[in-house]
């Protein structure tokens, strides 16, 4: 945004919105010290601890058999759960942003619900439903299916904790963009899928990407919910965060931090993409609002 | 699949549908409603219902005995107490960081702005072991705080607080920052021209406008902190009655196969979260109203 491109912000150039220098420097010092103390130091220490015993130990720790199994499982979990929540997010956003109906507010609250449930309780809930003594427990045993202490349980818990991310990103974006373009498409003869695919989704692609990235980071990093349902069987149901915990509890700190550093890298990549996406989204959003939608560039794409 | 535009759909007449829509010409209402409700029920509502039903296996007296056992009570005190203090610290420093990010220019501002979201993106277990390494007696911070000042942070209740401050920070910054960004300078100019000093302008003009967002951020940070598990258990030391958080009580009960007990404690936390969710919704409504009113 524009406030980055200037040497000073508009507030600093305005007498009425400017503080005395000592106030400014005090605020800057206090807030940035806090920032360094609470955010930068933990991040730096992950990499420092990971490399404390040298590159050899580091590389060995992340290429060792159970570490690789944990990485593979973590990627698999994300590959299954993120697309499922993506489809849900688009459906929910289409429903809430493009339609009016009674109970909309209630539905929005329900979609936010997973944010306020402790991860540990998420794991517990799936134990109650699918565990050995749970609702479907005996049925699952009869059919030789395993959910708890197996991959499906981890997937379910992950879906729950990442449930609202895509919907939360898309709903305000699609509401802000209104319905005019979609209504024009429908009037011109596009069906629902065409309208969604050629009109709505291109308009929200950056928000969509952001939601997917956030879900992915959370899916790969989820700890509490997954630790309840996983059973932590090494090489089988051990995800990366759980592997970090096991190594740490075995006092194998270098290896624990080595695997943790991969997750920290993932977090950094997520933040970089997020910053890019936000930048793109704001310029895209501004552009699409300043320039009226050109019906000529739109219509040839509506009919594939 | 084409969805026919019937006159009823155009006029939004969908009788007999409890989610009755008023007006939209766009198709896909029933499909997206069905899918959203189905998925929501399967993934979220049924598992939550399981907590309520499982707890009903207990009589109220038994339930009460489980959720008010001394060890459980101590954990509430720690979880809720540390969460409130952490959210308050975040409210102060979060407001300051948001202010600095919006109002001042300084080198590295873009990086600071991007990294504020780190606690959202960094897995909690990673945060947990990193904070423990920092605040342990031989850690970068711990060697001074514990070694010189004699204050124990890691493996003590103070460690819980540190972890909760870490995970809650972005909530306050990210709720206050957009409000600060959208603020027009006219209000402050008017205040200044009427003779207000800078502090008075902040206290009587800006703070009332920012307050709903600040409280929303506080409540979000608090809600997140109460349920937090991953970042806390490494640094807390998990000493019963001293540094044991409520989510850990649930885990401990589960490991002893005490499903009913675990569920009873979970229910108390769930109910609390739901109340908090309602409060947050009300705060957000207040926030958008007060911003609308200030323009």
Number of domains of chain B: 2
CATH class of the largest domain in chain A: Mainly Alpha
Biggest β-sheet of chain B: count, sense, barrel? Answer: none
Largest interface, counted by CB within 8 Å of the partner chain's CB: A-B, 114 and 105 residues
Largest sheet of chain A: none
**SSE succession of chain A:** HHHHHHHHHHHHHHHH
Keywords:
heterodimer, A: 304 residues, MetI-like fold, 2 domains, 0% strand, disordered C terminus, B: 295 residues, mainly alpha, globular
Task: Reconstruct the topology from this structure.
The complex is a heterodimer of chains A (304) and B (295).
Chain A: H1 2-5, H2 21-50, H3 54-63, H4 65-98, H5 104-112, H6 119-130, H7 137-142, H8 151-162, H9 165-177, H10 180-187, H11 192-203, H12 205-221, H13 224-230, H14 240-249, H15 253-290, H16 295-302
Helix pairs in contact in A: 2-15, 3-15, 4-8, 4-9, 4-12, 6-8, 6-13, 8-12, 8-13, 9-12, 10-11, 12-15, 14-15
Chain B: H1 7-11, H2 29-55, H3 60-67, H4 70-103, H5 109-115, H6 118-121, H7 124-135, H8 142-145, H9 157-182, H10 186-193, H11 198-227, H12 230-236, H13 246-255, H14 259-294
Helix pairs in contact in B: 2-14, 4-9, 4-11, 7-9, 7-12, 9-11, 9-12, 10-11, 11-14, 13-14
Task: Please provide a written account of the structure.
With 304 residues, chain A is an all-alpha fold. Chain A has helices at residues 2-5, 21-50, 54-63, 65-98, 104-112, 119-130, 137-142, 151-162, 165-177, 180-187, 192-203, 205-221, 224-230, 240-249, 253-290, 295-302. The longest helix of chain A has 38 residues, at 253-290. Chain A starts with a helix and ends with a helix. In chain A, 46% of the residues are buried. By secondary structure, chain B is mainly α. Chain B has two domains: 23-56, no CATH class; 62-294, MetI-like fold. Helices cover 74% and strands 0% of the residues of chain B. Chain B has 14 helices and no strands. The relative contact order of chain B is 0.12. Classes of the chains: A mainly alpha (304), B mainly alpha (295). Chains A and B meet through α2, α4, α5, α6 and α8 of A and α2, α4, α5, α6 and α7 of B.
């Amino acid at each position: 945004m524009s406030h980055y491109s200037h040497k000073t912000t508009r507030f600093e150039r305005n007498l009425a919105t400017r503080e005395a220098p000592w106030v400014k420097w005090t605020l800057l010092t206090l807030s940035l010290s806090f920032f360094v103390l609470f955010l930068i130091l933990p991040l730096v220490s992950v990499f420092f601890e990971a490399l404390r015993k040298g590159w050899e130990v580091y590389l060995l720790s992340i290429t060792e058999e159970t570490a690789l199994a944990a990485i593979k499982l973590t990627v698999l979990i994300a590959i299954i759960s993120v697309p499922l929540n993506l489809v849900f997010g688009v459906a929910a956003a289409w429903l809430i942003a493009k339609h009016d109906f009674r109970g909309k507010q209630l539905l929005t609250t329900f979609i936010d619900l997973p944010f306020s449930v402790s991860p540990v309780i998420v794991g517990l809930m799936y134990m109650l439903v699918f565990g050995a003594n749970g609702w479907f427990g005996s049925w699952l045993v009869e059919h030789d299916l395993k959910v708890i202490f197996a991959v499906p349980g981890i997937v379910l818990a992950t879906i729950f904790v990442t449930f609202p991310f895509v919907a939360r990103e898309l709903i305000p974006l699609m509401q802000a963009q209104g319905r005019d373009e979609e209504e024009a498409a429908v009037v011109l003869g596009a069906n629902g899928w065409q309208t969604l695919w050629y009109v709505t989704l291109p308009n929200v692609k950056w928000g969509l990407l952001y939601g997917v990235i956030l879900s992915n980071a959370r899916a790969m990093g989820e700890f509490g919910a997954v630790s309840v349902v996983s059973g932590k069987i090494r090489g089988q149901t051990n995800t990366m965060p759980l592997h970090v915990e096991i190594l740490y509890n075995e006092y194998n700190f270098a290896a624990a931090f080595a695997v943790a550093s991969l997750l920290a890298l993932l977090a950094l990549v997520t933040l970089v993409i997020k910053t890019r996406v936000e930048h793109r989204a704001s310029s895209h959003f501004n552009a699409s609002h300043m320039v009226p939608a050109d019906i000529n560039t739109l219509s040839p794409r509506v009919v594939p | 699949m084409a969805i026919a535009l019937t006159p009823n759909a155009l006029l939004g007449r969908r009788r007999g549908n409890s989610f009755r829509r008023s007006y939209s010409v766009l198709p896909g209402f029933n499909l997206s409603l069905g899918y959203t409700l189905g998925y929501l029920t399967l993934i979220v509502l049924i598992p939550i219902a399981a907590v309520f039903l499982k707890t009903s296996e207990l009589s109220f007296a038994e339930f009460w005995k489980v959720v008010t056992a001394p060890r459980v009570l101590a954990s509430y005190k720690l979880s809720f107490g540390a969460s409130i203090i952490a959210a308050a610290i975040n409210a102060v420093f979060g407001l300051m960081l948001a202010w600095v990010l919006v109002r001042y220019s300084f080198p590295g501002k873009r990086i600071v702005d991007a990294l504020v979201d780190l606690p959202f993106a960094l897995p909690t277990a990673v945060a947990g072991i990193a904070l423990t390494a920092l605040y342990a007696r031989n850690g970068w911070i711990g060697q001074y705080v514990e070694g010189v000042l004699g204050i124990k942070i890691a493996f003590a209740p103070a460690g819980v607080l540190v972890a909760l401050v870490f995970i809650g920070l972005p909530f306050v910054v990210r709720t206050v920052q957009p409000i600060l960004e959208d603020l027009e300078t006219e209000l402050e100019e008017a205040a200044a021209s009427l003779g207000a000093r800078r502090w008075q302008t902040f206290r009587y003009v800006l703070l009332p406008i920012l307050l709903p967002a600040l409280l929303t951020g506080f409540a979000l940070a608090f809600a997140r902190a109460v349920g937090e598990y991953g970042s806390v258990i490494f640094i807390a030391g998990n000493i019963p009655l001293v540094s044991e958080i409520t989510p850990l009580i649930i885990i401990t009960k589960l490991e002893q196969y005490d499903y009913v007990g675990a569920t009873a404690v979970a229910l108390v936390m769930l109910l609390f979260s739901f109340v908090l969710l309602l409060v947050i919704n009300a705060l957000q409504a207040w926030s958008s109203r007060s911003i609308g009113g200030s323009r």
